[in-house]
Amino acid sequence: MPSAGLPSSELPAGEGIETQIHRVRVGDGHVLVARLTTGEVVAFAPVCPHQFTELDEATIREGSLRCPRHGYLYDTRTGENIHPGRETAPENMWKVRPGFLPCYQVREDDGWISVSDDPCSPPLSYDPVLEERPARGDEPLAAVPAVAVPVAEVAEVAAEVVAPTGGPDGGPTGGPAAVEPAGGPVAVEQSMKFLTVVSGSIFDIRLPLIPRPGFTWRFDIMGELLQVVDEQFEPGYSPCHLIRVAAQGVGAATLSCTYASEAGERAEVRTFIVRVQPT
After folding, report:
1. What fold is seen in the domain 137-277?
2. pTM of full prediction above 0.85
């Protein structure tokens, strides 16, 4: 068990917002370590398995770690997903895809904390089959690269224009620019959407979330008028990934949303041409 290089004195006990979570190097990577109120030291992966959110700012209560982005809870000793895993019916597990948090064995001797560089076995409750999308949606999915459109062409598509959902303070001023899957569970390249918003406003876009192992929504913005300022997971019967976008300046920009894996495999591309008008 290689040394994590962390003196015991640097890891005081505490849970909740007072928990001290430290990132340490072990082997070729990093793990996070924390001491529970019981005095026990736990070690776990530095990112949430759900959507790879870094967990350095996570909180721990009663031995359960809460991801700061979507509130998923994991047992820091076993890695089991507590929420939403324990409340979700097996047939719906593929919709929330909580996975499990890799945990590591810890040893504390002579004032030093050591962490194994090999993760423990997955928790007994974890069944990867339950987190796979139903077989009818397993066929290969096509994707087409996003294409930028000049401002003049954007202005001609008046019928496609929708109102923004937020004002300068981010408050709602209209319905969301909801994006629904076309053609059922088999994802395809979606039709280009055209939005008109006011400079200084904040608007929402909802992207369908059909869980596929290792896939997440990624964003590419052409131009300097738009900025993704927040992301949220919205659970429910039809889970979605909500992004909140701020618009500044005047002109047009392209927002390309790609549902892709870490290896670069793309399942779906949704392209939004956004015209930003003066206030």
Report:
1. Immunoglobulin-like (2.60.40)
2. no
